[in-house]
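Ligand: GBE. Inputs:
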Amino acid sequence: MLTLKFLVLTLGFVLNCHAQKEPRKFPEHLLFGTATASYQIEGAWNEDGKSENIWDRIAHQVPCPIKNCDTGDDANQSYRLYKRDVEMARELGLDFYRFSLSWSRILPTSFPDVINQAGVDYYNNLIDELRKYNIEPMVTIYHWDLPQKLQDLGGWSNPHIVDWFSDYSRIVFKLFGDRVKYWITMNEPREVCVQGYSDGSLAPLLNITGYAEYLCTKNLLVAHAKTYHIYNDEFRSTQGGTIGITLSAKWYEPENDDHMEASEDHYQFEVGQYAYPIFSKTGDFPPSMKKRIAENSEKQGFFRSRLPEFTADEIELVRGSSDFLGINHYTTLIAYRNESVDGVYDSPSYRHDMGVIGYALSDWPKGASSWLNVVPWGFYKLLTKIKDDFDNPPVIIAENGFSSQGGLNDDDRIDYYRSYLDAMLDAMEEGCDVRAYTAWSLMDNFEWLEGYSERFGLYEVDFKSPEKTRTPRKSAYIYKEMLRTRTLDFSYEPDMTKPMTIDDGL
Ligand code: GBE
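Predicted complex:
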């Protein structure tokens, strides 16, 4: 079943793992960071005037939907311990640190009428602490923690969210934009819309598949675009930053030549539904996606496509509304065309509209997360496709990383980072315009419905200890050396008996 090309790639990967590879230099201009997100690390869920968001709501639901009934109530307590977080960023020698803002901490009513000074102080302190040590803040405005009140009003399925979100954005530009030069409007809209509204695997845990995720997608894109233009028109000339969106993007390798179209459809339903409107000349959803959903809708008796249309004004607004394309990439699957993914043709469903199933090969190494297959050549293929499809946009790798069950000797995570960075360098040699690379994550944190059971950190966190003690893993030592030397060295072995040092001279 496998194509020759595929065999050669697989073989190449296996050989790469075992032969001792020569060190490779990273280009001078490539920036390195790590990432976290507000709900996953801050804790302090109801302190100092913060109001309830959709993750607080589901975390407190009975029976609990989250593994081991974990919650983000305390998480890493970064609300209190942010100085330790910045200290770790210094230990690693990061160029930037990516974190997100909690909407309900800054605007407890969800709206601009009340600004919670304690919440603003927290982010000011974090930003100032980073800048004191020459670490650039990279700020995600929305990483999944919608105020519960807005969810009660329909959340991302209500078109009024365009105003709600852009009002919130204008406030954070005003508050923090004098010191923040990298803005990401949204983290992974596909996960917000599909996992949140259609397959019930992220808050708000809705299952309205084939319908709600498309409303969400459209509103979210327009909200993103309006925010981009607010930045452009009101802040860019004085603040001089850069602003974009971050998409999740797996690679889907066709099972064989018969499944090329399936692989393409999957890419369009995952990445294209956002990237195409923003980065192609059309300003609209990918043609193949529009066609598949329209045809299914008609067959099912709808009077119009379940995928809403953009107005001419919205197309103008969305087209070109990103300075860079943020990519969160972790994994690869094999794409297989199956027109009846859910076993039902007749009822509306995102997966049925897409008509593709993905599966992993049994010999692929895996992380602790069920979905995480280690396939570095998929990263290479994804990056070169993005370059070809969208006229080589500037790319920020906003997340890439590996999950384990814990432990300081994380050689599997080190292999992951080395092989994925190797693939990224291959893509850059092909001309892909990658400007920055971000490891997910600085430290273990609240992994959504998996609670604390899956660990992505360069630093291990002892969630039972009062100080949420953070300890560098072997991968932290490796990342530090990589950043210090700007070299991908496949054989460097750190001395973990030595504590991490701070070498920024400050
Ligand atoms: C990111 O999402 C998030 O931005 C970050 O917050 C999170 O902690 C990190 O990755 C690690 O997960 O049946 O294959 O669709 C797969 C990563 C669920 C992208 C989980 C959806 C990973 C895509 C279930 N995945 N996610 S299925």
